Amino acid sequence: MSSRLSIICIWFCFTILLVLGVVMVASTGLSAPPVNGVEQDYLGKQCGFALLGLGVALLISRMDYHKLRPYVRLIWWTCTLLLLCCYAPVIGKTINGESRWISLGFMFQPSELAKICLMLALADWYTTHREMAGTFVKGFLRPGLIFGIPLLLILFEKDMGTAAALGMSGFCMMYVAGARSWLLLLALLVGALALYMMATGSANRMERIEAWMDPQAFSQGSGRQQWISILAFARGGATGVGLGDGIEKYGNLPFAHTDFIFAEIGEEWGFVGTAGVLLLFTLMTLAGVVLALQTQDTFGRLLATGLVCTIFWPAVLNMMVVTSILPNSGLPLPFISYGGTNLVFTIAAIGLLTSIQRYSKQESKNYWPRRRQNDSKLT
Hints:
By secondary structure, the chain is mainly α. Helix content is 63%, strand content 3%. It has 12 helices and 3 strands. The protein has helices at 3-29, 42-61, 72-85, 110-128, 137-156, 160-177, 181-200, 203-213, 224-236, 261-293, 298-322, 340-359, and strands spanning 92-95, 98-103, 107-108. It has a 3-stranded antiparallel sheet, covered by helices on one side. Helix 1 (3-29) packs antiparallel against helix 10. It is globular, with a radius of gyration of 21 Å. It starts with a helix and ends in a 20-residue tail after the last helix.
């Protein structure tokens, strides 16, 4: 598969997922409860966010991504400061016990911007120090701090789902860049231990874990979402009950238009619909990997790898939560769940992938940076 065919496949899958998302928000948004007593136009807002994201993606796709490298440090500092604003008394906003929003005249989630910013920062670092990717200081410690400081800020916002998905994306990117495997495994164990300690140190999170282990026993409490989600999948069967005919969204399934929209796809479209969504994300990921493999310069290859991971891991974790494979963590399904910041920046990542395909030299030979650390031809 050529890089051109890869980006066509990415846009094809993304377009179908985006259209499906608009359709499902139209189906589930009408049953969503009012916010502060005010009915919300979820469909109109989702269409507006989608158009804004497409506009941003098209602009980015026309820009040479190499021009971002001189501004990577400024981008990193801006991202970190925005994450710190989540803790500010006036600007920061806490919703459902999570401090992941800031108010700038409109609600904004800095963690969504951080996904792209951190991939840029890591790609730039490993490109500059590619010959030292296997060392402890410049191959693991320094990039670990570049990535870890914003990640901790996201984790302390109590946004464990985003932190876990972003942590896995960073892990994959550092691995393909050539960082020592045993150091990454050690970091992964430390991260898992930190998540465990945060979970066991919170009564609310422990209740979520207990509910995940036995959703039916907690079906009227903290396990309600996952239990109703299971019922929605069961009711949908093989082909679903039909678009708009789902009943679980009517007051039974909380956040049916956001975090648990995949359950409504299962109810209304059945196994065929959910398998189709999974297939589209799989094809998009494979096409992104091929694009990264055929990108000749190190910066573009690593950046493409990171961007693909920031779409793949949230999608996988969301579907695993909705199907009760993992405890509830509150993570939207890319391109499909209702939401402004997540949708705009995830679509922007597609635009950046397009820029990589358009402005980088391509070659047919497949290889990862860790296998070619000493190749002086890479730039």
